[in-house]
Amino acid sequence: MREARPLLEVGRIFHEPAVTEYARGQEILARFPDAERIEVPSHWNIGGLHENEGLVNFSPVIVYEGWCAEYGELFSQIDDALSSRAKKQLACEVIFLTHNEALHEVNLGWHPKAEDLLWTPDLQEKKVSENGAANVRYARGKKGKMVKLFGNLLAEHLPYCTVRYAF
């Protein structure tokens, strides 16, 4: 019988100087004691990490009253800020909110007002993820319309932006 491999193999850890001052940093370093450790002043100094300079990730897209107007404003701000060179290479990924009941319960204690936007059973349906987790997502018929609205807004404000995927 073949020995089971770990789900995650980490050979190199880039870390900021103060990593050992934080419990989570200590935990990660202890979990991968054989990994090469490379100290960097900031994650922005990790070569290759930010190579998708022309990529914008709209995630999670949250639907609420007025969301289209606010995304339209965001797209206008992006358009105003980009150079013509950046506009030629701009692409985006669009992922609508997926949520779950366990996180909902945690958020009710920490951010109850935010949960009013995130937990909207009238717009959502239950979904079992590939990992077996019970989640909610925007309901199929409604989500298709939301994705189309988002795409239309994007085309209106950022017509040069290529959508890599939207779901």
Could you name the key traits of this structure?
alpha/beta; three-stranded parallel sheet; 2 domains; pyruvate-formate lyase- activating enzyme; single chain; three-stranded antiparallel sheet; 8 strands
Mind sketching the topology for me?
Layout: E1 12-15, H1 23-31, E2 36-39, E3 55-61, H2 67-81, H3 84-89, E4 91-96, E5 98-100, H4 101-110, H5 112-118, E6 124-128, E7 134-138, H6 140-157, E8 162-166
Parallel strand pairs: 1-2, 3-4, 4-8
Antiparallel strand pairs: 5-7, 6-7
Please provide a written account of the structure.
By secondary structure, this protein is an alpha/beta fold. Helix content is 39%, strand content 23%. The chain has helices at residues 23-31, 67-81, 84-89, 101-110, 112-118, 140-157; strands at 12-15, 36-39, 55-61, 91-96, 98-100, 124-128, 134-138, 162-166. The strands form three sheets. A three-stranded parallel β-sheet has the order 3-4-8, with helices on one face. The protein is globular.
